[in-house]
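Annotators were shown the component list below and the corresponding predicted structure, then asked to write short factual statements about the assembly.
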Amino acid sequence: MSHECILTEVRGDGALKTGLITLNRPKQLNALNDQLMDELGQALLAFDADDGIGCIVITGSEKSFAAGADIAAMAGFSHMDAFKRGHISRNWETIRQVRKPVIAAVGGFALGGGCELAMMCDVVIAADSAKFGQPEIKLGIVPGAGGTQRLPRAIGKAKAMEMLLTGRMMGAEEAERSGLVSRVVPAASLLDEALATAAQINTMGQPSVMMVKELVNEAFESGLSTGVRYERRLFHALFGTEDQREGMGAFLDKRKAEFRHR
Ligand code: CO8
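Structure shown to annotators:
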C-alpha cells in the first residue's frame, strides 16, 4: 500500500521479520495530522496481521520523531469540531490494538502527541539528540492522547507535573534516568540499534512475546492482584505451546532454542 505521510518497509533476515514505519512529513517536523495518523493506523494493523512480522519499529527523522499534533490543522477548531471530527480519537488508539511489540526509535523532537505516541510504544530507544516534552500548556490546551496519564506513570508525579505545567523539554539522558526510555544510543546508530533489538525479540517464541506485552500493559493499567492472577493464567497457557517444549527441551539438551513461533 502506498502512503504519503509515512514510509513502510520490511527489514531483517530471520524467520520473523520487522515492520519498519518511518514518519515522513519532514517539512512539518512530522507533525501528526489526520492523514498521517490514518496511514500509521493502517500500517500498524497490516504488520500486526502479517504472520511473517514479529516486531514493529516506528521512527521519524534525525531532527524530529514527531513534533506533536498538527497545530495548523487544529488551530481553528471549535469544541464541536474537535469532538465531532474525532480528531481527539481518530486512530490515536489504534496502536493499543497491536499485539506484537512496537519499538519507538526516537531521534530529535518527541513533543506533545509525538511524546504520547512514543509512550504508547512498548520499548523506547532514544538517540542522544532526543528531546521529549508535553508543551501543550503553552498552546492553551492539555495533552489529548494520554500524556497526563502515561507520563506520571513513567517518570513519577513530581517530574511529570513540572514538565506538563511548564512545557519544558527533557533531554535523552534525563529521559533515561527518569525511566521514560529504555536506552540512549548515538544518533547515528539509532535505527540499527532499534532493528537489532527487534531482531533479538524475533528469535523468541511468539506466544511468550505477545503475552509479555499483554501482561506488562496489564501492570500499567490494573491493580497488582488482578495482574498477578492474569499472569498466572497466561503462564499456565504457555504449557500448551510447542515453544515451551522447545525452550525447556533446548535448555535441558544444552543447545540453543529454535522457536517455530506457534
Ligand atoms: N504542527 C504543525 N506544524 C509544526 C509543528 C506542529 N506541531 N511543529 C513544527 N511545525 C512546523 C513549523 O510550523 C515550521 O513550519 P514552517 O517552516 O512552514 O514555518 C516547521 O515545522 C519547522 O518548525 P520550526 O521552524 O518551529 O523549527 P525549530 O527547529 O525552530 O523548532 C520545535 C522546533 C521546537 C519543535 C517547534 O517547531 C515547536 O515548538 N513545535 C510545536 C511543538 C508543540 O507544541 N507540539 C504540541 C502540539 S499539540 C499536541 O500535540 C496535542 C496532542 C493531542 C493529541 C490528540 C489526539 C487524540
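Statements collected:
1. The pocket of octanoyl-coenzyme A is lined by residues 28-29, 31, 67-72, 88-89, 92, 109, 111-113, 135-136, 139, 143-145 (CB under 6 Å).
2. The chain has two domains: 6-203, 206-253.
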